[in-house]
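To close the chapter, one final illustration. This time we ask the reader to focus less on the individual chains and more on the assembly as a whole: which components sit near each other, and how the overall shape emerges from the parts.
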Amino acid sequence: MQALASRLPGEDLLYLGDTARVPYGARSGDTVRRYSHRVAGHLWRRGIKALVVACNTATTWALPSLAAAGAELGVPVLGVIEPGVDRALAVSQRGHVAVIGTEGTVRGGAYTRALLARHPGLRVDAVACPLFVALAEEGWHEGDIAERVAERYLAPLRAGADTLILGCTHYPLLAGAIQSALPDVALVDSAHSTAEATARMLGDHALLRSAGGGQQRFLVTDHVERFHVVGERFLGGPLGEVELVDIRDDDGEAFGLPGSAHR
Amino acid sequence: MQALASRLPGEDLLYLGDTARVPYGARSGDTVRRYSHRVAGHLWRRGIKALVVACNTATTWALPSLAAAGAELGVPVLGVIEPGVDRALAVSQRGHVAVIGTEGTVRGGAYTRALLARHPGLRVDAVACPLFVALAEEGWHEGDIAERVAERYLAPLRAGADTLILGCTHYPLLAGAIQSALPDVALVDSAHSTAEATARMLGDHALLRSAGGGQQRFLVTDHVERFHVVGERFLGGPLGEVELVDIRDDDGEAFGLPGSAHR
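The assembled structure is written out below.
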């Protein structure tokens, strides 16, 4: 959100956090896909002109079906994995890239597939670090405990990869602890490359609004008060108004989820 | 589940884990209540004769409305808070009780209210320990990291309470680390007192089946494979068959959620 607002100051940005159902990281692919299509359907009905799937787990499981549904509706859809892969390939010196993410992101293998498709000779490691999300949400992203958790998860990557993709939007908050555990590794955060790719995508579809004055709005599906606390930790400042939206599993329009008409 | 099976060997036990929507600990009271009534409705339609709300967060927010709905249907309903309070009052030597639980359990204040209703002169402290659930699910409930997390959360309780209620069903797994942080405190786990109270409740309603041969079945709303891994860590042995059930927000019968007919 920060990177998009800074790269695209003329665009109105609508953020939707599915706080009634997160974390997605340990859920099955089918459930992540179902939740992602409900969220996308809500945003689509609000008239968005483009969709950024700003979650690695949702990108892993739902990007192909969301992109197909978006194409039918004329709404371009972008995930965070391809931009992260672009950046990692530009940064890597020795062709050995590691990815850290949720259980679902690692199990789904989308990063590994995308890296190898672009560069078949690459060495790729992937490690799930589920506690990092809980640490970031708790505000314990710095200090002794965060460093010990990072050391334990990242020990298998020592003396290996030269580049590490932070494959979860919570992980940049833990960059200090991660870098302490792997001091010689270049960290890749996909936020800025995703913002660049979004600008390119809007340009390609003649949707770019280059004058300033864009607005930011935040929607959540549960517990506005807690979102203020956690969201302000991520954005480093007040969020402004946060609106509670009611997205149920029975929302009429599933925004292109295959088979959803029959469920 | 273990305590119920051991105390009530003649009863068929049906466990439902809402793995598509857990953890409930950081959600709003309204959302926990909505999810709890959907789960209860599913179990009710399967013909259960009694319901144990074996989650402290769900007991905190949903027990009164679930009990009212159960009374209309002739299904007695029991939570885990009253049995934990009974046990803590029996154990406490100096009348100073602390409760640890999720954000929601602590914010809801049901333990504090129940303790003070029974014993108005009691001193009660309550501390939320959200990371404990993530540690238990990750299998990191013992060792250095668990001990440091416990020390950090529990430092405010040192030199205070004589009795500590483990107010979340995940926390008994961390009993070692918790006891290290508070060596002189008596730990109270509500599992056994809940099983006792369940036996009493079934007896009072002439529903008790005292012969052996009870069966255990596990239902989950998402990701059967992961439930086997995590569930076997809790039960200390294989779970047998685990069935995936599809509980949507659009389930017709809300099992007595106030106002649900209009939503």
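Chain B has two domains: 2-79+192-262, 81-190. The mean pLDDT of chain B is 94. With these observations in hand, you are ready for the problems at the end of the chapter.
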